[in-house]
Write a structure and sequence with these properties.
By secondary structure, this protein is an alpha+beta fold. Helix content is 49%, strand content 23%. The chain has a four-stranded antiparallel β-sheet with strand order 1-2-3-4. It has a three-stranded antiparallel β-sheet with strand order 5-6-7. The radius of gyration is 23 Å and the shape is elongated. This is PH domain-containing protein.
Length: 177
């Protein structure tokens, strides 16, 4: 007989103890912003050089606006990285992020189908990596955690693989033939 009882004491995700990202995660985020702003500034400088009318009209805005925009981006990355955290638990992985709109994503390990470790050139130089976890039925990563050390990513991947292997071995039923 099917029984569906009411749950009164729900677990609180606020009780999760999140681990901060790697020390160099902030440097990585700020370098990524600079990789965007340096070519952007060069393009604006070239436009100003070849279009004197645009330069005369936009000079004040660019001289004031660009430093403010770059400073705001750097401050945003400081706040964003400080508020991010990851937690590996016995049956799931949790990741929190967000400054204004805060989000906690909890992915059950039993649903993980595929794991990737991604390392771009800046990440390799800093000893960092990103962990991407995919669950069944999706083309994009269900959870992506950037700013972890490469060692942490490898350990987390191994933990998830061990968990999945343990789950499949306990679910296997020996044949009675």
């Amino acid at each position: 007989m099917f029984n569906n009882q009411q749950i009164t004491d729900l677990p609180q995700h606020k009780n999760i103890e999140f681990k901060a990202l790697a020390d160099k995660a902030l440097l990585h985020a700020q370098l990524n912003w600079l990789v965007f702003y340096i070519p952007f500034s060069a393009i604006l400088a070239a436009i100003c050089y070849f279009n004197e009318n645009f330069a005369n009209n936009a000079q004040t805005y660019l001289l004031i606006g660009m430093p403010i925009l770059i400073l705001a981006s750097m401050l945003y990355s400081v706040a964003s990285i400080k508020l991010q955290g990851v937690a590996m638990r016995q049956h799931d992985i949790a990741f929190k992020k967000g400054i204004i709109w805060q989000r906690v994503t909890i992915l059950p390990l039993a649903r993980v189908q595929h794991i990737e470790i991604h390392r771009g050139p800046i990440e390799r130089k800093l000893g960092l990596a990103s962990l991407k976890l995919y669950s069944a039925g999706g083309m994009s990563a269900d959870l992506q955690v950037s700013g972890l050390t490469h060692t942490d990513c490898k350990n987390m991947r191994q933990f998830v693989q061990d968990y999945r292997q343990e789950q499949t071995s306990t679910q296997a039923v020996p044949a009675d033939e």
